[in-house]
Automatic annotation (TrEMBL):
<dbReference type="Pfam" id="PF01966">
    <property type="entry name" value="HD"/>
</dbReference>
<dbReference type="InterPro" id="IPR006674">
    <property type="entry name" value="HD_domain"/>
</dbReference>
<dbReference type="InterPro" id="IPR003607">
    <property type="entry name" value="HD/PDEase_dom"/>
</dbReference>
<dbReference type="InterPro" id="IPR006675">
    <property type="entry name" value="HDIG_dom"/>
</dbReference>
<dbReference type="GO" id="GO:0016740">
    <property type="term" value="F:transferase activity"/>
</dbReference>
<keyword id="KW-0808">Transferase</keyword>
<feature type="domain" description="HD">
    <location>
        <begin position="22"/>
        <end position="97"/>
    </location>
</feature>
<protein>
    <submittedName>
        <fullName>Putative nucleotidyltransferase with HDIG domain</fullName>
    </submittedName>
</protein>
Length: 183
């Protein structure tokens, strides 16, 4: 099992130099995940590990399929990460929808656990901008649509996945409210 400190070093070694903005994003997602670790039903350690590793598949050294959730999951499985963390990375932020649009096979074989931990990971990613800035989910999705533009597969993915993404974000916001964690 890979623990957070080891996951941090691994992620940093693969992302910091070639993709500094992605590295800032990943660090901010992990920071938010640390803040949410006490939510009811959330596995704090798996959330933190998945958060620091969720975009590792963008690293040029391991980007073979050119679909980061799948590249990351396959790499992490070889590195000895738990099946749960591997699946959280493979399925993060409703990746199965984008995989279908891109006709990439493999993401669907990983378990989508539909849990508070999964929802919290999706929330953290949906509220962190491309350079690590805090955004609302609506601001983040607008930024993505603007960056990719109409007609891009990422925009089409977001159009299809937004209801499921929004539901995960809303469930996490509700858990945060119940726990007294500021938004």
């Amino acid at each position: 099992m890979v623990e957070f400190d080891e996951a941090f070093v691994l992620s940093e070694s693969l992302l910091a130099e070639p993709l500094p903005d992605r590295w800032r994003h990943v660090q901010a997602v992990a920071s938010e995940a640390s803040r949410l670790g006490g939510l009811d039903g959330v596995d704090a350690e798996d959330l933190r590990v998945a958060a620091i590793l969720h975009d590792i598949g963008y690293a040029p050294a391991i980007a073979h399929e050119r679909f980061h959730p799948l590249d990351g999951a396959r790499f992490l499985a070889r590195e000895g990460c738990s099946d749960r963390v591997v699946a959280l990375v493979a399925r993060h932020s409703c990746a199965v929808v984008e995989a279908q649009l891109r006709q990439v096979v493999g993401v669907e074989y990983y378990v989508d656990e539909v849990s508070p931990t999964r929802d919290a990971l999706w929330y953290c990613d949906a509220t962190t901008g491309p350079q690590g800035q805090r955004l609302t989910a609506d601001e983040r999705w607008a930024e993505i649509r603007h960056r990719y533009g109409a007609g891009n597969v990422v925009t089409a993915f977001l159009d299809q996945a937004e209801p499921e993404l929004r539901a995960a974000v809303d469930r996490t916001l509700s858990r945060m409210s119940t726990a007294g964690i500021p938004i």
